[in-house]
Structure formats: structure tokens, C-alpha cells
Amino acid sequence: MRKRQESRQARRWAFIALCAVMACVNWRAALAQDKPPPPLSSLLTQPGLFEPPGGPKAQLREWGIGLDAWVTQFGQGLMSGDGSHAWRGGGKGDLILNLDFGKMGAVEGLSVNVHQEILWGRDINSLKDGSLIPLNTALAFPHLGGREYDISVNLTQKVGPLTFSAGKFNLLDLAAKTPLVGGGGLDTFMNTAIAAPISGVTPPYLYGGIVTLKTDPAIFTLMVYDPRNAQGSSVLATLFSKGVTGSLAMTVPVSIGGLQGFYAIRGVYSSKSGQDLNDVLIKKLLPDNLESNLEKTGYRYGQISFQQFLFQHAEKPGVGWGLFGDAAVSDGNPNPFRWRLTGGVGGNNLMEGRELDRWGVGYFRYTISQTLLNWLALAQKPRRAEQGIEAFYNLAITPWFRVTADVQWITPWEAAKKNAVVGAVRTQIRF
């Protein structure tokens, strides 16, 4: 245990040391160019703490090297409901490296993305409040896979309207790119039900390939990946040995009254096998000396979603606020989730001078497979659909320093547990 703690501390300090190196590089580069340190006015407006206008980071991007790092700290606790009411503090460090080989003069359209993440402290996802869906997305992954750190590396090649990507993907990165809702638990909503909805068939980390085709009416995305969670090296060593998962999505960008919107439909099928939930019931009813071990092959999942701006900045169309919604249904066996529904409103604060602020109010409901609920009832563990409401406001003190206030109201899936109210404060520094 002591060695694990020392290892965690070492990784944390290594991340902090790297950020310090970035600061030194920025300072030394400024001195080498006979440039004075950036004035206070620049420090308050520049996008990163170590990113003055025309500084080393901007120069590196021109050469095809993008390096970004940020640290997010959480204080979160149960304000009412069953479970521990002690507030817990934890944090996450993210380091992203992008290499554009086209800008380097090598291969046009070729790029590499590397994402290193590390966790420390304690999270709120083990409060024993009876909830099923993680209350803090950013601190749930990669922790739920038994690790405090992880790295994802993928290669992308663009050829006209086609984009090919292959490697290891962090699904929170993909969720963070969605309009209005995006953030992956670091910038906007914290609850996984809204920030990165769980499907029961797509793991948080995966090995596979993604092909995207952009056309005038729609964007088509095909994903083929190993159905297992890609944390650790064992999955890579036995790739696709447990089946294959395919996902096909179509996103249609629209403009309604000059306001952007995105409407999507997605279907997923996996050939992997899972525990037949009917067999769980059979085991409960069989005599103790008889066993049953049935598996069911095939996971099916369908989803529709939308993001529609209601107001947009006159000069920055990506800045605005609007409505979002998502509905999904699965086979319910072997997938333990039957259907889900999320919806809400959010985006940027369009008041003059506060356009960088983010806010949102969202609702979710997750319904569990009735077969699983029947078994849990027989086992005297009554469960129900989990639902909740989350509201947050992300205040940009500067473009690189943010403070978020967040509150969640949860009806947990454990029927015996009381409704819970969870509060949180989140701070973030982008280097």
C-alpha cells in the first residue's frame, strides 16, 4: 500500500514538474528573443497561464506541435441523503500533445494525438448514497478501471472529405467535443449521465478505428472497436478475441432562423457475449446443487440526440446557448441498461464581458433492464430507475482560471435510499 501511495505521489509530482518546465521554456524563450515578460493585462486575457500572444506555444503550433496541460481540482460532498456527508477533495491532471505532420512538411493531413491523464485525492463516487451513475465523471475515469493514470494515443489521416483514425481512444475526449454539453466532466456537467452517457456497450477507453465522411447534407461516422475496456495492455495483446463492436452514426447540421443545430442518430451492434440475465433468474430458482451458466451473444443499442442553439454570438457562432436532448434504448439483455433520457439547456453567458462563462441545467433518467430488476427483487435488493437534475455555473476569472459551482439532485437506483443533494466546487488552471 505504501509503495502504491509513493507511486501516485511520484506521478503527480512528475505532472507538476512538466508544467513547471513549460513555464521555464516560455520564460527562457522570451529572454532569448529579448522580449520582456508579458504585462499584467496580457496575463489576464491570454488563453493559457504560459501562453502570451506570439509566445513559444503559438510558435510551436505553427511548426505543427501543440502542447496543452491543465489541472482540475474538485471539492464535492453530500449535502442531504444517505451516506457519508464528509466533503472530499481530489484532482485530475491532463496533458495533450498534438503533432501535425503536414505543418512539419512531412505528410499532409497526418496527425498524432497523445492524452496523458492522472488522478489524485478522493472522489465522491463511493459515498454509498445508493446512486448507480458516477456523480463525478472526471474522477471516475480511469479510476473505475482500477488505475489512477492512463494514456491514449491515436493516429489520424485526412484525405479530402474522409478522415481515418486508429489507435487507443479516450471516449471522454469525444464527449467533450459535443456542442452545448461538451466538457467531459471538466468544464460543464459533472454527472456521467449527462457529461458522457453510459451505453452499456461502449467502453470508456477503446482500441479501434474511426472513419468520418463529411458531405453537404450530413456527417457519417463509422467506428469499429474491441468491446472490452482498453485500460492496460492485455486487450491490445488479444485484440478482438472477445468479439467486435460496430457503430454507425449520422449527424445532420441544420440552420433554423440562422441558428445552428445538430441532429444525430446512431446504431451500435456488438458480437461480444455477456451474462444472460434470464439465467440469473434461473440460478435463483434452481436447487443449490444445480448450476446454470448461460451466455447471450449480441448487444444492440440505438440513440437519437440533438443540440440546438437558441442564441448565438453575432461574431462568434460557436458561442451561444440553447437546448440539448438525448434518448437511447438497448436490448435490455445482456445489456443491464434498458433506456435513458437526458435533456436540458445550457451554453455560454452572452452578457458583454462574460462570454467565456459556461452554465447549464440538465435532467436525466436511466431505466434498468426489467429482467435484472426482477432478479434483484428476488435477492431482496430492490432497485429502480435512477434520475436526477444537475445545475452548474462555470465562472471564467481569466481565460485560463475557472471556478465552477455545481449542485445535483439524485433519486438513486437503490430503492431504500433517500433522495440525495450533492454540492461541488471545481477549479481549473490551463497552462
Question: How would you describe what is shown here?
Answer:
- With 431 residues, this protein is α+β, with helices and mostly antiparallel strands.
- It has a single domain (2-430), classed as Carbohydrate-selective porin OprB (Porin, Beta Barrel).
- The two termini are 32 Å apart.
- Mean pLDDT is 87; it is low at 27-33 and 286-292.
- It has a 16-stranded antiparallel β-barrel, surrounded by 4 helices.
- The chain is globular.
- Helix 8 packs parallel to helix 9.
- It is built from 9 helices and 16 strands.
- It has helices at residues 2-32, 40-45, 56-62, 137-140, 171-175, 192-195, 234-237, 277-285, 370-378; strands spanning 65-80, 88-100, 110-121, 149-159, 162-170, 205-214, 219-225, 245-256, 259-275, 295-312, 320-330, 337-348, 358-368, 386-398, 401-411, 420-430.
Average pLDDT over all residues: 87
* Oligomeric state of the chains present here: single chain
Number of strands: 16
Query: At CATH's second level, what is the architecture?
Result: Beta Barrel
CATH superfamily: Carbohydrate-selective porin OprB
Largest sheet: 16 strands, antiparallel, barrel
What class, by secondary structure content? alpha+beta
Question: How is this fold's topology laid out?
Answer:
Blueprint: H1 2-32, H2 40-45, H3 56-62, E1 65-80, E2 88-100, E3 110-121, H4 137-140, E4 149-159, E5 162-170, H5 171-175, H6 192-195, E6 205-214, E7 219-225, H7 234-237, E8 245-256, E9 259-275, H8 277-285, E10 295-312, E11 320-330, E12 337-348, E13 358-368, H9 370-378, E14 386-398, E15 401-411, E16 420-430
Helix pairs in contact: 8-9
